[in-house]
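Ticket reopened. Same input as before:
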Amino acid sequence: MKIYADNAATTRMSRTAIDAMIPYMEKVYGNPSSLYSIGQEAKEALDQAREQVAAVINADPKEILFTSGGSEADNQALRSAAAIGARKGKKHIISSAFEHHAILHTLNRLEKEGFEVTLLPVHEDGLVVPAELEAAIREDTCLVTIMTANNEIGTIQPIKEIGAICRSHGVLFHTDAVQAVGHLPIDVKEMQIDMLSASAHKFHGPKGVGFLYARKGIALTNLIEGGAQERGKRAGTENVPGIMSMAAALKEAADHMGENTEHQRALRDRLIQGLSEIPHSALNGDARKRLPGNVNFCFEGIEGESLLLLLDDKGISASSGSACTSGSLDPSHVLLAIGRVHDVAHGSLRLSLGEDITEEEVDYIIQSVKEVVEYLRSFSPVWRNLMAGKIPFIL
Amino acid sequence: MALYSEKVMDHFRNPRNVGVIEDANAIGEVGNAKCGDIMKMYLKIEDDIVEDVKFETFGCGSAIASSSMATELIKGKPLSEAMNLTNKAVTEALDGLPAYKLHCSVLAEEAIQSALEDYYSRYPEKRPADFVSRPAHDPHEIPEEE
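Engineering reply: fixed in the latest deploy. New output:
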């Protein structure tokens, strides 16, 4: 059996998304900035895509800026808010401890440039507490950036409450919604979101394309200078095939969101139930306020990379927050942020299910994980010490 | 190119000499769970020969493969060979490791050194005059590939 269970990393492109890009590679290949008809046709198609994307999040088409993906959108949103803040002498930014590195590393840069950053705790359940956010807002706060759903543990943040708090204090609110767009309903007006980042390949679109939503009136700072594309805010000939494909993928995801969510949630919970039977294991993040396809566990006494390699041998593609999979010595900052100690964070497993996951596949995953965990524990000196009572169990 | 060589994957999937020797006379343990790697080696030494060796490892694919290969390289060999086994020899026998995984092969070398230290502290009269076990490395100083 072959099961791709790493949809939080990337997704397989849908047939709709593939079909949508082909005409813009072989027939309507004109440059949207050109005056002749195949150029203008491409421009009209772009306008249509912009309308389609905007409609899904209840934005105005003029508020959508196409980018190369989520990281670029995150960088531009933060750079823009920082520049706006700096002009008013406001140089304080609030974020959370478990943001994506596209946010955290940009914040590190801004700190070096004189900004002050407050990272809110995310607690054991992996959730930002709105009251703690409100308490952290200062006179000089220029931006709050909190992700909609976490990429590792899938926890869904109280975005609407955060949006209301930020609006009432006159602070810009950005959300990295890369894991959420196409999977959760998002209404930027109702949620009072000022800026939002999204990436096409997380919802069955192509890699290398995404978008930034920025509410009307927010002055954006260019990351890429050049031509007047994207209303002068993002130079470079538009990735027309990619954008057309993204719009089609997003529309498809939005059209089927209800049924997909229901199906995925049921199987996610079955998977959580099954893996919970493994002794000395624990689900990471709140069990209910999480993405419909996300399952993330820690298993005591084993290391994540060997778990992944053996699951791969059984045809299952998954990921881990262990140090060995990150190429560094520290395990995932997300797991550390929710209070998992290094010893157990190394033994983590993320399974992010696709919309087409079946009950049979979930049962196969449960069986396989049980076997592999048991096998790795059979020659783990840590497990031996735990079982002998020489060291205490953490989970 | 795949992350690991075929040799590494073979020793990871089918590790040799896994387990415990109940009457081992040399036991070494290195690494810590915080860093994500612990290696434990059990040796049965008789007449200056490594008669038997087994290991237990908590760690990534290359840690398990390095343990397995290290046991293969010293099993049935004179003590002097075990003493002189280097991480480089383990890495070469595995057809190489990615640069950031070299510390796994260092752990294997150190686990054997730690076991020998244990052996000579049990039998100080057997300790060669020139044997000084190599101390465990700091995992934050990963050796560069040569």
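Chain A has two domains: 15-255, 257-387. The mean pLDDT of chain A is 97. Please confirm and we'll close it.
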